[in-house]
């Protein structure tokens, strides 16, 4: 009896029982109902007129795809039918060109005619074949609502890259069978579809199995590309294309920005690089503690940096000796900028008066320019000393506040303003600024985090002043370490792989880099340009690009130009999910670095998904990977 069953239609019923949809299957108008969930099929019906190489890869690696099956059915159009179709189109375009009075329509018709003419010539003389392709996405889920959300996400992402898809109503049974039948058999279906006609060369150029990867020799695994390639990344890799080490990271809340940033920090710590972190939120504290790093609070409850201490910020590039005179001038420039923060948009004359007063003060205090950076920290004056000196310049008798008679009214007004600002700093924020530096030599410390959570709650002018203070300290620190490393490299004692690099990470960077804080932008641009010489780099991280570049900023303004320059000096752009209302800012800032389809795909990026744009290289879409151990280590930053 069994033999008769097997012989009938050459079918094996036992095998069919094993492979059939378990629990049964029912085809509805828009969804396939199965015993274990729901399924549907999206049919791609519209294709863009122009595509890039590996264009099919953009379809097969959509970021919103999750446990999906993608099929690409390819058939061949009859050569004679193809030529007849091309001929009809040529006649139509020629007619439009001569009969349409609209000039734009005429241009379009002319361009289309030219493309068709070239195609006809290739088919006739070059052996070009016309292929018919049909692309389908099969999506499944346990719940119907979740399935509909997946359909919506895929359709939106398809539209973002120039394609359009649809669920063909009441045709799902045929679409489902298309999984098991080729294009020839599909022609027998009642809903037979011809498919999109494309030249064979265009289809070949769309090769969907183009695997992208990044494999830096000194890198550590950061993630995996959408095509399955590894992203083994080292921020400090140097090639003929990758010549500097600055980066920026964008990612809205909950998409993995913090995890990515912590992974980059951890990777650099493992490699042995120097890491300095400006932690605005305080969430890095457990990781820094675990890595044995030092945590410094500069909110008045911990350490203090004396703004009047002159640090070595200029070094002779040939002898590597500290240039005291140049460092003093740089310090004077820094103090001038700090006064601008404290006074809030003072008049130019007032700032010049402050510069003059400060220069006179250092001379009065016995600080010699020729050895300006060589004094011990306690030998430098502090802010209360400067306030006392300013008052003595203003008054004959300080206690009675008797004003000197030789002062002009304008000078008197300028000195009054300077004294008021200095009094505010000494009286209200003395714990932050009025004292000798308590931060001793940090050259030998690998990891330091500056905790700024409390400081960020202060008045903006105080917060910005202290940030500027920290950045100056770090520039001095980077110069000391970088000079030593550069000397070893130049003398052949170290290779690039042996060099200890210096990384400054600024989290929540929008609190520092924004249109209201142009002085900080200028300073960071200078740091970006100079750090490369000393094997250093900066990494900025923030949630939205709009926090740094609001849409209200005129793209022709000086402020916009400077912020754009700051981003242009970043070799690496890590772009995670952004709101759709940030697209305009992304286009303006990253013009020429991100394609339109990539920009449109950004709002649809999922958890941990990222576009890495590297100057001079192809952009890489990948997902940041974190082990279970790393997730525990990064607790709170997922």
Automatic annotation (TrEMBL):
Residues 219-572 form the TraG P-loop domain. InterPro entries: HerA-like (IPR008571), P-loop_NTPase (IPR027417), P-loop_TraG (IPR043964). It holds the Pfam family P-loop_TraG. Gene3D superfamilies: 1.10.8.730, P-loop containing nucleotide triphosphate hydrolases. Keywords: Plasmid. It comes from the Bacteria. This is Conjugative transfer ATPase TrsE. It comes from Clostridioides difficile (Peptoclostridium difficile). The lineage of its organism: Bacteria, Bacillati, Bacillota, Clostridia, Peptostreptococcales.
């Amino acid at each position: 009896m069994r033999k008769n069953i097997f012989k009938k239609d050459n079918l094996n019923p036992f095998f069919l029982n094993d492979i059939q949809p378990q629990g049964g299957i029912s085809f509805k108008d828009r969804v396939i109902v199965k015993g274990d969930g729901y399924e549907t099929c999206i049919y791609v019906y519209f294709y863009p007129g122009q595509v890039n190489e590996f264009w099919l890869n953009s379809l097969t690696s959509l970021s919103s795809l999750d446990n999906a099956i993608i099929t690409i059915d390819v058939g061949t159009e009859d050569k004679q039918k193809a030529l007849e179709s091309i001929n009809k189109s040529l006649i139509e375009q020629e007619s439009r060109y001569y009969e349409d009075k609209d000039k734009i329509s005429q241009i379009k018709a002319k361009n289309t005619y030219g493309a068709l003419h070239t195609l006809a010539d290739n088919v006739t003389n070059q052996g070009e074949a016309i292929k018919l392709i049909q692309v389908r996405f099969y999506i499944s889920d346990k719940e119907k609502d979740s399935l509909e959300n997946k359909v919506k996400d895929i359709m939106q992402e398809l539209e973002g890259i120039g394609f359009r898809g649809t669920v063909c109503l009441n045709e799902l049974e045929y679409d489902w069978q298309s999984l098991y039948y080729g294009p020839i058999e599909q022609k027998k279906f009642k809903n037979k579809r011809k498919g999109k006609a494309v030249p064979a060369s265009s289809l070949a150029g769309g090769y969907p199995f183009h695997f992208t990867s990044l494999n830096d020799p000194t890198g550590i695994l950061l993630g995996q590309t959408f095509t399955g390639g590894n992203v083994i990344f080292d921020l400090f890799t140097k090639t003929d294309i990758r010549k500097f080490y600055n980066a920026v990271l964008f990612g809205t809340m909950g998409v993995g920005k913090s995890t990515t940033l912590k992974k980059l920090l951890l990777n650099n710590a493992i490699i042995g690089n120097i890491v300095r972190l400006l932690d605005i939120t305080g969430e890095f504290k457990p990781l820094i503690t675990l890595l044995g790093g030092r945590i410094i609070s500069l909110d008045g409850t911990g350490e203090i940096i004396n703004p009047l201490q002159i640090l070595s910020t200029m070094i002779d590039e040939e002898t590597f000796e500290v240039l005291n005179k140049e460092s003093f001038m740089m310090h004077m420039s820094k103090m001038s900028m700090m006064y601008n923060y404290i006074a809030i948009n003072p008049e130019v004359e007032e700032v010049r008066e402050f510069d003059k007063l400060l220069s006179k003060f250092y001379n009065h205090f016995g600080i010699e320019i020729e050895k300006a950076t060589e004094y011990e920290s306690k030998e430098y004056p502090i802010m209360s000393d400067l306030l006392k000196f300013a008052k003595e310049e203003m008054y004959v008798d300080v206690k009675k506040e008797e004003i000197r008679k030789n002062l002009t009214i304008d000078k008197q007004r300028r000195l009054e303003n300077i004294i008021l600002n200095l009094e505010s700093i000494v009286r209200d924020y003395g714990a932050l600024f009025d004292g000798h530096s308590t931060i001793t030599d940090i050259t030998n410390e690998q990891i330091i985090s500056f905790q700024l959570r409390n400081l960020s709650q202060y008045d903006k002018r105080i917060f910005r002043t202290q940030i500027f203070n920290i950045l100056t300290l770090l520039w001095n620190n980077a110069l000391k370490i970088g000079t030593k490393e550069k000397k070893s490299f130049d003398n052949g004692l170290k290779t690039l792989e042996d060099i200890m690099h210096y990384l400054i990470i600024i989290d929540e960077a929008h609190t520092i880099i924004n249109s209201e804080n142009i002085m900080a932008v200028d300073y960071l641009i200078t740091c970006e340009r100079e750090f490369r010489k000393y094997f250093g780099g900066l990494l900025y991280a923030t949630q939205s690009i709009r926090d740094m570049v609001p849409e209200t900023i005129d793209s022709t303004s000086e402020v916009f130009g400077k912020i754009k320059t700051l981003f242009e000096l970043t070799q690496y752009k890590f772009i995670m999910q952004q709101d759709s209302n940030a697209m305009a800012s992304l286009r303006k800032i990253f013009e020429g670095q991100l394609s339109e389809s990539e920009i449109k795909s950004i709002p649809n990026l999922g958890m941990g998904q990222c576009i890495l744009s590297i100057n001079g290289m192809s952009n890489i879409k990948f997902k940041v990977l974190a082990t279970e151990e790393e997730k525990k280590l990064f607790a709170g930053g997922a």
